Fold:
Amino acid sequence: MTLPNQLTTLRIVLVPVFVYLFVQSSPWMKLLGVVVFLAASLTDIYDGYHARKYGLTSRLGAFLDPLADKVLITAAFLIYVFEGYLMLWMVLLVALRDIVVTVLRVYAEMRDKPVVTSREAKYKTLVQNVFAYLVMLFILLGERTFTGERVASFMNGVLTSDYLDYVMLAITVFTVYTGISYLCQNWKSLLAPSSEG
Structure:
């Protein structure tokens, strides 16, 4: 297994570690969870750079890399649901879209009809990541141990307000749209006979 694929696998392995740490009541454990999350995110940056620089791109990597990203972000979103900051149905819609697209990507690869990630899908991933990071930052700032009573109360007010739901709703709609767009753009390719046939 190449180094980029090893880093991608490490990112998936770090997901349960991040979840375990971040759901703890101790602010310091949460902070350590954020460090793990950031470390996992950094592997995404480096494995892509390394693969392109040394020509180590592969079909396995093309499948595992976006899958690892989806698992990491979905884990963060589910934690936010568990903490009462996001609505479950929106996160489930986002996860369902990613599952469907991932299955179709695997199917396309098996039929030797690989598809390229669209620009819209890349924007979707960027927006999801930024949102996940911001909510994580708000949660840390909401810990009185780190910020004091006044700042913590303000940040917890933001976390329990309707604003997060509005932003997540916009992300959910955009995510579902990119899934539908993916189906429309690749439908003929997915139904076409495989190159082996």
